[in-house]
Structure formats: structure tokens, C-alpha cells
User: Fold DNA-binding NarL/FixJ family response regulator from Actinoallomurus bryophytorum.
Amino acid sequence: MRVIIADDVPMLRDLYRQSIQSLGVDVVAEAATIAELLVLVRSHRPDAVLVDINFGGHLGRPRDDDGLHAAKRLRADDPLLGIVMFSVHMTPAYLRRITEIGDGTHIGYLGKERIKDAHTIVDALTRVTAGETVIDTALAEQMLRTRRVQDPIARLTARQRQALELLAQGRTNKAIAEQMNVAVPTVEAYLSEVFKTLDIPVSSDDHKRVLAVLAWLRSAGAGPFGTHTDQP
Assistant:
């Protein structure tokens, strides 16, 4: 896998590089500015990029120079480029903005405390290049804990909520089954009950999965109809 690292802090770029190279990832270039990142991606055509959400923010640069805007420009150039974004403070508001980039696929969101967790980073890179949407498990768990009591999600069983959380992380039924240590038909049964409880209308399986994830995001205040007030 060929990857470009983009962060304006040299020490952090070094840590990212050392971490993922230890598992065989080919770091083809590093970018210290957004302009440099855009040029390097066009010249190297990597499989994925690691980008700091607040790229340049602590230096007082213009808002157009942050990682989210860079990700939008990268996505416009290449709908299939894997993008994994990092931030010190993970919030549902950031998650909402990230999943609104392109069609919300081939993208991931991790906390910066994962910087030395090579396996988690490489797993995220692998999954986003395959078209998945990756959400840091810490944020996913936080959002489930803060869901509103009156929300239909509160009526789900623990195993159904776990299946929904993994679904929201962009995992396939097979991957959910492996994570939960159950058979795929069991996962299908869990998700079928989730769809019924959330009143997901009859439609294609892909559409039902998207609607279920949106309901999950709204329950934690991350969706467009949520009440979460965090601002990135």
C-alpha cells in the first residue's frame, strides 16, 4: 500500500511514518502544507493519505488551509482515494463533516492518540482503500453512550446495538460476524430487528444500511437533525 502523510508538525509526520512502515506500508511522500499535499497526490497517485483535520490551524492559517477542505479537494480529484483523517479532539460534528465529503465512503476518522497504534492505522488505511467508512471505536462508543433515552435506538438489545455500531463503522456483515464471534445469518437477524425497531422502510439493503447509520448518528447528535452543539 502506497501512502502520503500530511501534517504540518515534523515530529508527528515522523511518528506516523515509523508506525505504519513497521507493518510494511510504503510511505511515498510527506507533505508539510496543503498545497504540497495536493501536488504530491497528483504526482505519486497513492492508495491513501493520512491527513490532520486541523492542518495548519494552530499556526493561524486561513480556514481554507485546513485538512477538511484539503480532503474535499482530494475527493473531487479522485473519488476512490483512501483518506484517513486524524484529530486531537474527536467530536460528532467533525464526523458529520467528514462523512459529507463525497459520498461518505473511502474515508476514515481516528483520534491522534492512535498515532503509535500501527495496527489500527493500517487497518483503517486498508479499509478506506477498499471503500469502507471507518470511525474510531472510541468515538463510536461515546456516541452510543450519549444517545437520547427516548430514541428508538434505546430499545435495541445490547447485541443489536453492537451490530449497529459496527455497521456504522462501515463494516460488512461478514466483518461484523467475525467481530461479534457469531455466524453471518445471526448478524443478518440482528440487523433485521434493528431495521424494524428504527422503522426503516422497505428498500434495497444498501439503502437500509445507510438509513440505519443516519439514525444512529442522529441519536448521538451528529446528524443533520441532531441536537449536539459541538463545533469543530
Notes: The beta strands are 2-6, 26-31, 48-52, 82-87, 107-111, 133-135. The two ends are 31 Å apart (CA to CA).
